[in-house]
Structures are given as C-alpha cells and as structure tokens.
Specification:
Elements (H helix, E strand, L loop, with lengths): L1 H12 L9 H22 L3 H20 L3 H21 L1 H13 L2 H5 L14 H16 L4 E5 L6 H4 L3 E6 L2 H8 L9 E5 L2 E7 L15 H12 L3 E5 L6 E5 L2 E3 L4 H32 L1
Parallel strand pairs: 1-3
Antiparallel strand pairs: 1-5, 2-4, 3-4, 5-6, 6-7
Helix pairs in contact: 7-9, 7-11
C-alpha cells in the first residue's frame, strides 16, 4: 500500500540520537510514570474514562486520515484542536475539582515540612455532646422528624455555615429537636456543629452526584453524602419518611443505625481520631525539644 511505503520511507529518514542517561533523566521518567498512573486511576472512576475512549477513537481516525492524505479533515482537526481542549476542561470541571481536592487532602506539605498548622481547639467535641446528639436523633427518629446534622472536623465548614442562620448555642438534645420541629423557621436545611456548639442552622449543602446511591434516597440524604465527599465532616441524617438514622462519612452512607451503633460510630470517628492527632502533635513537640 502506498501509505505504508511512505511511512516506511519516513521512518528510514528519521535520525536516532544516542544519548547517555543520568540520574535526573531516570528520576524524570519515574515522576512522569507516577503521574500517568495516578491520572489513569483517577480517570477510571470518573466520566473522563469514557471521554478518553472516545478520544482514542478520534485519534485513530485522524491517523488514518493523515495516512490517506485527507487534507480537508486534517485542516478541520488542526483548527478545532484549540477549542476542543477548552471544551474538555469545561466538561471535566467537576472531576478536575474533585481530583485537586483529593490531592489537597493528602497533606503532603505538612508531612514533609518540620511544622504542622495547629488545629483550633474550639473544634474539639466531647462525649457529652455526642450523647446529646444521639439522644436527639433517636427521639426524632421515633416521631419521624427529618434532620440533617453536620459535625465539623479538621476541614472548615464556614463556607456552608455562611449560607444559614447564626445560632452559636450549646449542643443539647432539646435545642436540636426544637430546630428540626415541623413548621418552625429553622427546620429546613442542615445544622452545623463545631465542637460543643451549634454554630448555624438552615444551611445549604452540595448534593452528591454519585450514581451508585439508591434512587429512593431523597434530597436530605444526597446532601449529607455530598458534603462528606468534599470535606472530612461527619453527617447524621434522620429520614422523615422512614424514621431511619444514617451516617455519611467520606462519601459512604451507613443506614439503619440504632442509638448504640450511632454512638459507637461517632466516638470512633470524632474522639479516637482526635486523640491520635493529639498524640502525634505531642510527639512532634517532644522531638523538637530534644533537638
């Protein structure tokens, strides 16, 4: 075939330069390989994987167009390429944002540098507050009062806090029940808790786009999962239709929790991890003193 002969002649004319590799070249190859692997793993769990397969088909088509000298198609491809890159960025904007957020959660800088930003002590929750939240959720579940409670951890929720009404009250079961009571001004939306205080009510949360979630879940559950996908918060949802208690954490939803399971789950996430964080900070402080 004529196009195969042209390709063979072109490859014969290509000059191959022999170079010696140094440590920097090897390190560069490893970095590029790691980045490509990370990008491929990320793409496989998003819509970008389907787009990649579509782009591969387009690429094969363009190679054939070049081989058969389809000049009009090649001219169109060259002029559309700039707009296509911009369009891809717009289409993949949610996936790119999630990827950057996941990269930021890895705390690479804080692990490498010899200092660590101090967490605000006002975000520390006590076991008494956990008991009050569990008591409120259990009582609301019995009478099927819908509730959405978001508990802040290391990552700030102030961007969502500003969408609601400032409360700044001590967490008690009576206050939570009164907030979510039907036909009250504050019952719609989410309550945000920081430490032992309710800081805001009627807050708006981002909804989850996870297609694996049950279609039977309503807005309240999708909002609870949504905020857990973009922050490290712990969210408790009480269903108004079924009276079931659920917990959303790290994008996963656990349903049908009773008082004992809810309390155990909250203590495991909110108290034990805080204690381990304090131990790490104390250890770092001791090592600095010894140095």
């Amino acid at each position: 075939m004529e196009w195969l002969n042209k390709l063979t002649e072109y490859l014969k004319g290509v000059e191959i330069y022999k170079t010696t590799m140094n440590v920097g070249d090897i390190l560069e190859i490893l970095i590029i390989a790691f980045l490509l692997y990370y990008i491929m793993v990320w793409m496989k769990s998003t819509r970008a994987w389907l787009l990649l397969k579509g782009l591969l088909l387009i690429g094969i088509f363009l190679i054939l167009a070049y081989a058969f000298e389809m000049t009009t198609i090649m001219w169109m491809a060259e002029n559309v390429l700039g707009f296509a890159v911009t369009a891809l960025i717009i289409v993949l904007q949610p996936e790119l944002r999630n990827a950057l957020e996941e990269l930021g959660k890895k705390n690479v800088i804080s692990n490498v540098l010899p200092f660590e930003p101090k967490k605000n002590t006002e975000g520390t929750i006590t076991e008494h507050t956990i008991n009050e939240i569990v008591r409120a959720c259990t009582m609301m579940a019995k009478v099927r009062t819908g509730a959405l409670i978001v508990i802040e951890r290391a990552e700030s929720l102030r961007v969502y806090e500003r969408t609601g009404i400032n409360i700044d009250g001590l967490v008690t079961s009576q206050l939570l029940i009164n907030i979510f009571e039907h036909n009250t001004p504050l019952h719609d939306g989410a309550v945000i808790i920081r430490g032992d205080r309710i800081v805001s009510a009627t807050c708006y949360l981002p909804r989850s786009d996870n297609q694996n979630l049950s279609k039977e879940l309503g807005t309240r559950h999708r909002a609870g999962v949504g905020v857990s996908e973009v922050t490290d918060s712990l969210t408790i949802i009480v269903s108004e239709e079924t009276g079931k208690i659920s917990v959303a954490y790290e994008g996963a939803l656990e349903s049908n929790l009773n008082a004992e399971l809810l309390k155990a789950r909250m203590k495991k996430i909110l108290i034990k991890e805080e204690e381990s964080g304090k131990m790490k900070r104390k250890w770092k402080g001791r090592s600095k003193v010894e140095k």
